[in-house]
Amino acid sequence: MNPADWLPKSVLALRDYSARKLTADLISGVTVGLVALPLAMAFAIAAGASPQSGIYTAVIAGFLISALGGSRCQIGGPTGAFVVIIFGVLARYGESGLILCTIMAGVMLVLLGITGLGTAVKFIPRPVIVGFTNGIAILIASTQIHDFFGLRTGKTPGDFAGRMRVLIQAAPTISLPATVLAACTLALILLVRRFLPRIPAYILALVAATLGAIFLHLNIETIGSRFGGIPSGFPHFHAPQFDYSTMRTLLSPAITIALLGAVESLMSAVVADRMSGDRHVPNVELVAQGIANIVSPLFGGLPATGAIARTATNIRAGAQSPVSGIVHALTLLAILLFAAPLARFIPLAALAAILFVVCQNMGEWHEIPEILRLPRLEIGVWLITLLLTVFADLTVAVEGGMILAILIYLRKVTATTTITRVTDEDVAEGQLHVLQGRHIPDSIAIFRIHGPFLFGSTEKLDAILDQLPELPPVVIVRLRNMTALDSTGIQALQRLADAVHQSGRHLILCGAREQPSRLISQAEFERHIGAENICPHVTAAIQRAEELQGKPATQLV
Q1: Which residues in the chain come in under a pLDDT of 50?
Q2: Residue 538 belongs to a domain with what CATH number?
Q3: 95-131 pLDDT tens trace
Q4: 378: Cβ–Cβ under 8 A, 6 or more apart, which residues?
Q5: 277 Rama sector, left if φ>0, alpha if ψ -120 to 50, beta otherwise
Q6: Is 525 found in the same domain as 489?
Q7: Which site in 7, 221, 283, 294 is 20 to 30 Å from 192, CA atoms measured?
Q8: What is the pLDDT of residue 436?
Q9: Which domain holds residue 37?
Q10: Alpha-carbon distance 245 to 487, whole Å?
Q11: Are 178 and 198 a contacting pair, CB within 8 Å?
Q12: In a domain, 376, yes or no
């Protein structure tokens, strides 16, 4: 077995580590640590936990995920994906129930990684994932309305409809100072991210809002007034209380946490791969996520997973190895040890504004127009998942989404079975698709996709991406033997098109059968490669490739 298949990336990174890389990791680690501070507190508060529990999670889980994980630049910690499920577990089972539930989820993640079943998360189709993220973003935003506007609501209900009813009734209690401060914080974050992207917008806005509230003597809620501040020092050990009957009732939310943690961590690792040019090891990453979720609750932490925004920030700041993630955790630990008392002055309205921006970023809103171009079945799956997430329960939404995924897969696969009579026209048309005896110029590379290209199989396009630097100027992907295509497959082809064009090459699709051709047209795929580069057969594709010789890829679209 290749050591790279089971060793953490932190160990592999030591092979060629240098003082230059250490310097870059120190800078990026401190930067992302400062970015993570307000987010860790905000996620914890939104989930109904204490702000320090979010910091504990970022320190402990962040350290373990970087030290033991299979991604070079992944940053782990509390994320928005868990807010809703944590809120429900805390409300029903209390802190001891959350500790037990998180440990159970951690054990599941370790087993997924050890057995190699972690790759099973790829069988969740695109509409289901988009529906989850849309719904979670809406739910998180709804929990922050009362802090953003300073409403006096008391304890708000856990369900979305009940929460919105209470918020509407509390509208007359709106606080002008809190609302203005939150709006200014929100505007500052958006402006800094737009015009000064290298500056940590969240920490700058948090400091500005805190200083503004102090010097203007604003009568608004702060971390100190609601939680009594954040205690200094190391987190304390919390012994779990194992009880079979409680564990049985917590099985469903634990599965949800494990599933969400696996999906988000691997999605974040894929984003990190694209930005850094690395290739993560999924099963090693899941084992690290599992260990982090077993240890984190023992010291007052929450469920953790890979954080896409913080991972992207880490890479943009120049991270070279997992050492950066370790430095991020140590930075937060230093703040916890030496600056925790200052956190009591942080306005909750400012944290609500930060979470509004997070909801806007994590919601995958740009995916909705793409989903609406798809067949009604895919649109219905997205909408059902979204509505179940918002109005029912996240666990129900996950279970419903998985059932829908299975039904979609079965429908797509069975639809590929056809019985038709062969005619003379079929034989004549078939000659246009045949490659045997045809000369392929050295300036063209032809790849073939065989079978259904649905969720669960789209990563096989890596066979093209891995060879991309050595490929000739024109890449043809032959779809003659692709029997079925879905939205996840379309998205994978879009990413392939973008990667090919960024490399300065041309991409041509050819020979798509009826169902794939219909979906390609419905999704307006020509926006990515140009309508003239979607050819009916390989003969036309080769002719088109010869026309493109010497033309830059930017002329395609």
Answers
A1: 553-557
A2: 3.30.750.24
A3: 999 999 999 999 999 999 998 876 666 667 778 888 8
A4: 125, 126, 127, 371, 408, 486, 487
A5: left
A6: yes
A7: 221
A8: 64
A9: 19-149+166-223+234-368
A10: 41
A11: no
A12: yes
